[in-house]
TrEMBL record:
EC number: 3.1.-.-
Pfam families membership: HDOD
Signal sequence interval, chain numbering: none
SMART domains linked to this entry: HDc (SM00471)
Alphabetic keyword roster: Hydrolase
Domain of life: Bacteria
The UniProt record lists the keyword Hydrolase: yes
Gene label: rny_2
PANTHER family in the cross-refs: CYCLIC DI-GMP PHOSPHODIESTERASE CDGJ, PTHR33525
Gene3D superfamilies reported for this sequence: Hypothetical protein af1432
Protein name as catalogued: Ribonuclease Y
Provenance organism: Mucispirillum schaedleri ASF457
GO molecular function (one): hydrolase activity
Length: 363
């Protein structure tokens, strides 16, 4: 059994000596079977998050301050330890907590999931312009297109960002584009619409993403890249590129809510599930349903971390890998090409390389 001890050097030595041969005690981050916090004052207690740590947690209380005890009920812990310590008592508490932990965790996860879903359902509504962009289908009427275009033009902020992005190398324009009308004429309404949608989602990423070891700006850029790559792959597989673009753009939107609940850094969806009992892909689906996104798009996002997703989920998963692991981009494309008939795989490789080398700052 590996136990992580967080507290004084003396405390660590005491536990190490006491449990010598029975359990490994260290202050390293990898000790994952149980966590012991030394509570030497009320201030120390207040610094501990009132969250589920995913492993049994024990408080080792070394302060006579009575307020510590009265505040402790707010924490999710498996037990309390007081000095003088006794090896047998500690071990029996630890072992009992491990067997009980599974059942307790199920209950905790359920409560957490409910809270996370509630927060996802309460995510700020999309800006009107984004709502309208999402509503537009591939064969929208000219009148509807005209209306949305004039709304984009009226919004100075969105307009200038769209102009900046349409001039990026991926779109391959020779002469600089200076207006929305010109962009629509040269690149088509679909491109302008997609860029405006990406920009209007930017506001959800204006927060810290420390537990994902990244920043909001980098998260947005990743979403934008995955949108472009997904849509590009869709083109070569003769699929609905706009739907794939939207799926790519929103594939990690669940992290916007998850970030508020995570207490430890996460590497992958497995870590998310361990801490919170759900994944960002599931939570993204809640958000997207709330935003009335088409079911096929929601499904692609929901399954982008599954082992065997359907085609759209598979495309988003590939685009996600490509953007995270750019050095091996070609490998992921060949892999996808072995599963689905990609026409002109070399051209697809080239345009994905252009997207990756671009890395336009959309903020
Ligand atoms: Fe993801
Ligand atoms: Fe991602």
């Amino acid at each position: 059994m590996n136990i992580r001890f967080i507290g004084s050097e003396n405390g660590l030595i005491t536990f190490k000596k006491l449990l010598n041969g029975k359990a490994n005690v260290s202050n390293g981050a990898d000790a994952k079977d149980a966590l012991i916090f030394e509570i030497s004052s009320l201030e120390v207690l207040y610094k501990i998050p009132k969250r589920n740590f995913g492993v049994p947690v024990f408080f080792y209380i070394t302060t006579p301050n009575k307020s510590v005890i009265s505040n402790i009920k707010e924490y999710r812990i498996s037990g309390i330890l007081f000095p003088p310590l006794n090896a047998e008592t500690i071990m029996s508490k630890l072992i009992r907590s491990q067997t009980q932990d599974a059942a307790v965790n199920e209950r905790d996860y359920e409560t957490l999931r409910i809270k996370i879903i509630a927060k996802a359902e309460n995510i700020p509504t999309l800006p009107t312009i984004a709502q309208e962009l999402i509503k537009l289908t591939r064969n929208a009427s000219q009148a509807a297109i005209g209306q949305v275009t004039s709304k984009i033009k009226m919004d100075q902020g969105i307009t200038s960002k769209v102009i900046k992005l349409v001039n990026s190398p991926f779109y391959g324009v020779r002469k600089e584009i200076a207006s929305i009308d010109r962009a629509t004429m040269l690149l088509g309404f679909s491109s302008v619409k997609n860029i405006a949608l990406a920009i209007s989602l930017d506001q959800y990423y204006q927060k810290p993403f420390n537990m994902y070891k990244t920043t909001g700006q980098a998260m947005w850029q990743h979403a934008y890249n995955v949108a472009l790559i997904s849509s590009e792959i869709g083109k070569y597989l003769q699929q609905d590129c706009d739907a794939l673009y939207m799926a790519g753009l929103m594939h990690d939107i669940g992290k916007v809510v998850m970030a508020d609940f995570l207490v430890k850094e996460v590497e992958d969806v497995q870590d998310e599930r361990e801490q919170l009992g759900c994944s960002h892909a599931e939570i993204a689906a809640v958000i997207m349903n709330k935003w009335s996104v088409a079911p096929a798009v929601v499904d692609a996002v929901k399954t982008h971390h599954d082992t065997r997703p359907e085609l759209y989920g598979r495309i988003v998963a590939a685009a996600n890998h490509i953007d995270h692991d750019t050095d091996n981009a070609d490998e992921y494309i060949y892999q996808l090409g072995s599963e689905y008939p990609i026409q002109d795989i070399d051209m697809l490789k080239d345009s994905i390389q252009t997207i990756l080398s671009d890395n336009t700052d959309g903020s």
